[in-house]
C-alpha cells in the first residue's frame, strides 16, 4: 500500500493541540493512553480508527472529516476494484452465470 504523503493525521492533531495550548500528556490522560505511545502515534501519518475516535471525541473535532475531504479532492485518482466498477445489471448477469 502506498503511503499517503498529502494527509498526515498525526500532524493535524498536533497542530490542533498547539492551537488550543493543550499538551500531548493531557490528551494521553484523556484517552487513557501512555504519553510516549501517544506521542509516537501523533508522529505517524496514520492512526488507528479507535484511537482517532477517542481523540476526536475528547477534542470535540471530527478528524475523520480530513479523510473525507481528502477523498473528495482526490476522487479522480481512486481506483475501484473491477467488481465495484460494474453496473448492477452486469453484476446480476455474472451472478446468474456462476449459479448455472
Overall average residue pLDDT: 78
Number of helices: 7
Low-pLDDT stretches = 91-100
> CATH class, anyone?
Mainly Alpha
| Strand percentage | under 5%
Q: How widely separated are the two ends?
A: 37 Å
Number of extended strands: 0
Oligomeric state of shown chains: single chain
Helix content: 55-70%
- Could you name the CATH topology? 434 Repressor (Amino-terminal Domain)
Radius of gyration: 19 Å
General shape: globular
Q: How would you characterize the largest beta sheet?
A: none
Name given to the CATH architecture: Orthogonal Bundle
Q: What is the count of structural domains? A: 1
Instruction: Quickly give the structural class.
Output: mainly alpha
| Order of helical and strand elements | HHHHHHH
CATH superfamily: lambda repressor-like DNA-binding domains
Question: What layout of secondary structure does this protein have?
Answer:
Blueprint: H1 9-20, H2 24-30, H3 35-41, H4 49-59, H5 64-73, H6 82-85, H7 88-99
